[in-house]
Write a structure and sequence with these properties.
By secondary structure, this protein is an all-alpha fold. Helix content is about 45%, strand content about 0%. It has one domain. Bound molecules: iron/sulfur cluster.
Length: about 90
């Protein structure tokens, strides 16, 4: 299987281990802009979340987004606001 290059990522601390863990990311083979939808657009958010739900690296993706406090885009099937709530609940 040919590995596609990572999507343009805003992850500030994406390291080699992260890259390896997310090598099978579904979004790497998709339009990266689709993951930076207006979170008020419920239809678009639901569409992206449904893709993330099937992604084999969803858990690793979410862990990275939480660790790096990624402020933009849908990662691991969660919006920035959902990730903030998750972090707040865990604190
Ligand atoms: S869970 Fe979603 S955002 Fe994360 S790598 Fe998979 S498709 Fe991309």
């Amino acid at each position: 299987m040919t590995r596609m290059p990572p999507r343009m990522t805003p992850f500030p601390t994406l390291n080699e281990d992260d890259l390896r863990r997310t090598a099978d990311a579904v979004c790497y083979r998709s339009d990266p802009e689709a993951w930076f939808v207006d979170t008020g657009d419920r239809e678009a958010v639901a569409r992206v979340k449904s893709i993330c739900a099937e992604c084999p690296v969803r858990t690793a993706c979410l862990e990275i987004a939480l660790r790096t406090d990624e402020p933009h885009g849908i990662w691991g099937g969660m919006t920035p606001a959902e990730r903030q709530r998750m972090k707040g609940a865990a604190a």
